[in-house]
Amino acid sequence: MIEVRRASSVEEVMVAIDVLDRIFGAHEGWNATRDRNIEAYGADPALLAIALDEGCVVGAVGSDGAGTVTAVGVDPAYRGHGIARQLLGEAEDTLRQRGAHSVGLGAVDDAVDFYLRCGYVPQLLVQFRSEVESPQSIVQELLTGPLRDHEVSQTEFQGSPQLWVQVDTVDFTFKGQIEAVAPGTVAGYIMSKEL
Prior knowledge:
Keywords: Acyltransferase, Transferase. This is GNAT superfamily N-acetyltransferase. The protein has helices at 10-24, 28-43, 83-97, 112-117, 135-144, 172-179; strands at residues 2-6, 48-53, 56-63, 69-74, 102-106, 121-128, 152-157, 160-166, 185-194. By secondary structure, the protein is α+β, with helices and mostly antiparallel strands. The protein has a five-stranded antiparallel β-sheet with strand order 5-9-6-8-7. Strands 1-2-3-4 form a four-stranded antiparallel β-sheet, sandwiched between helices. β2 (48-53) and β3 (56-63) form a beta hairpin. The two termini are 28 Å apart.
């Protein structure tokens, strides 16, 4: 039987990080936040929910304690048994107990349907890789092209524009149309849920 609970030690955190490393491998999003996650979970192991099969960690879900789920992963051999849903519920409980009223997360394309089934609502985030020299011209092309009929808000992150597109459904064809406007344009679904 699988046990789902919060991590209770730095040792459990590091074992869970090894599992997440195997699951995500060279995934850009995981690698960009890995060290920051280790630091946060090491300082507060309860931010990491873990699933154990006879004492072996087979999945983990981390949060920042304020309103963001930072990592969700279950060993492929254990998928399809509701473990990720249990882990996500534990992370949501942690956030709720710490005063959060909503939760958000970035979703890899393969996991979007899972989050929709868990009650999350999508929003499309459009960003630009650092090698893009003039993202503002691409923003204008997007706003007059594929995004012209959508509600879009613009923010900035590390000096580069971000576009937040309100969507009713997840549409990977639409996502592809946005990314095809110019090299270095990256779109991804951000999922959120009221707690």
